[in-house]
Write a structure and sequence with these properties.
Number of strands: 20
CATH architecture of the largest domain: 3-Layer(aba) Sandwich
Number of domains: 2
Cofactor: Zn(2+)
Number of helices: 11
Distance between the termini: 30 Å
Keywords: Aminopeptidase, Hydrolase, Metal-binding, Metalloprotease, Protease, Zinc
Strand order of the largest sheet: 1-2-3-13-4-14-18-16-17
Helix content: 25-40%
GO molecular function: aminopeptidase activity
CATH topology of the largest domain: Aminopeptidase
EC number: 3.4.11.-
Pfam family, one: Peptidase_M18
Structural class: alpha/beta
Shape: globular
Radius of gyration: 22 Å
Strand content: 25-35%
CATH superfamily of the largest domain: Zn peptidases
CATH class of the largest domain: Alpha Beta
Low-confidence stretches: none
């Protein structure tokens, strides 16, 4: 794959995906353009060999798959998994705050973000809104203000002399964004009225805003960074980088006879326990509708493999001691095998061996991450999917800096390389012994 063209399209995808809802809609649009057929979970399905399909659940998770020659039990399914959500600030149900004449919105912390980088950023707002039309019918719409409408100002150093030494953040009182000033004698703005006006710009005439799931995001666009453009800087690289890479690989695998699948779950950042999360039944229920019998399902899973793709911690030049000396991945040195003795990652010697072999065949470098023995590590959808389906699983990721910050950093060579390997994976006639 052409790396410059790949990265420019990746940047466009990131820019169009400020929330899990928008990322899912963008993937659905791209799959449709590539000839995938949209399915509805409420309908009866009649799947055909040699066809391509996708299905969305609750607007924020997607499964796309190809049926290949239809011999699921004998060949299994080559599966790739990622997640659509990222740490963020989520607007509360009754958010309006009037503090000293400034209009602010109360927020909850979604997931585990680095909070310091959220200060002094030009913020916008996007997400999903549920509303009633003039006939009393309930509808859902995606909304994206796009323009900067809010900011979280820092407290000046003169008023907090210890800020550079021991600053702590109280998420209840320190981070409500400022949206505007309220003139003396005026009422505090009604946030739902603001949403109604924004929906109207898209032709949605909401009589009543019932509720919403809205997230602030940084309006600074993704960019190629570095003297030689060695890096990609963007919000939500964790884990839209993997969503995009898996999507591109599945679209490129258009000539394979093997059944293939991509799942992008929601809610990984908050534990995955939801109808759209990896702990939920979404993937299993889709798979059960692909197979004719439970026996075929079980047989197929034993002939299948899942590659869970979620970003890895690149070794930071200023904090190299936070890594095990023999397992410090470098940006632009290839995808990372993620291994943990306590099964926080689902990688086994078999699944990692297959990945090493594919990387060698595609002339793509591969690295390994193991956390320091005296430090914990995060987890992914890999162990959850392996537990739910009984399928052999591999955990990999692209090395990044600033994970869970409002702006993360990845190598500009790594994503295109991983897409090549995943495309080869989708073409494999035989998986594991």
């Amino acid at each position: 794959m052409n790396t410059p063209g790949f990265n420019q399209d990746l940047i466009a995808f990131l820019q169009d995906s400020p929330t899990a809802y928008h990322a899912t809609a963008e993937m659905a649009r791209r799959f449709s353009e590539a000839g995938f057929i949209s399915l509805n979970e409420r309908d009866s399905w009649s799947l055909e060999a040699g066809k391509k399909y996708f299905v969305i659940r609750q607007d924020s998770a997607i499964v796309a798959f190809t049926t290949g020659n239809g011999r699921f039990a004998e060949q299994g399914i080559r599966m790739v998994g990622a997640h659509t959500d990222s740490p963020a600030l989520k607007v509360k149900p009754n958010p309006e705050v009037n503090s000293k004449g400034y209009f602010q919105l109360g927020v909850e912390v979604y997931g585990g973000p680095l909070l310091n980088p959220w200060f002094d950023r030009d913020l916008s707002l996007a997400g999903k809104v549920t509303w009633l039309n003039a006939d009393g019918q309930m509808q859902n719409s995606l909304v994206n203000f796009k323009r900067p409408i809010a900011i979280i100002p820092s407290l000046a150093i003169h008023l907090d002399r210890e800020a550079n030494k021991k600053r702590s953040i109280n998420p209840q009182k320190d981070i409500p964004p400022v949206l505007s000033q309220i003139k003396k004698g005026d009422d505090t703005p009604d946030f739902r009225q603001i949403l109604s006006k924004e929906l109207e710009k898209n032709g949605d005439k909401a009589e009543t805003i019932l509720d919403y799931e809205l997230f602030f995001y940084d309006t600074q666009p993704p960019a190629m960074v570095g003297l030689n453009e060695e890096f990609i800087a963007s919000a939500r690289l964790d884990n839209l980088l993997s969503c995009y890479t898996g999507m591109q690989a599945l679209i490129e695998a258009k000539d394979t006879d093997q059944p293939c699948l991509l799942i992008c779950n929601d809610h990984e950042e908050v534990g995955s326990a939801s109808p759209t999360g990896a702990c939920g039944p979404f993937l299993r229920q889709v798979l059960e509708r692909i197979f004719d019998t439970h026996d075929e399902f079980v047989r197929a899973m034993q002939n299948s493999m899942m590659i869970s793709t979620d970003n890895a911690h690149g070794i930071h030049p200023n904090f190299a001691d936070r890594h095990d000396g023999n397992h410090g991945p470098l940006l632009n040195e290839g995808a990372v095998l993620k291994i943990n003795a306590n099964l926080r990652y689902a990688t086994t010697s078999e699944t990692s061996s297959l990945f090493r072999q594919m990387c060698k065949q595609e002339d793509v470098p591969v690295q390994v991450f193991v956390a320091r023995t005296d430090m914990g590590c995060g987890s992914t959808i890999g162990p959850l999917t392996a537990t739910e389906l009984g399928v052999r699983t591999l955990d990999i990721g692209l090395p990044t800096f600033s994970m869970h910050s409002i702006r993360e950093l990845a190598g500009s060579e790594d994503a295109a390389g991983l897409a090549k390997v995943l495309t080869r994976f989708f073409h494999l006639e035989k998986l594991l012994p």
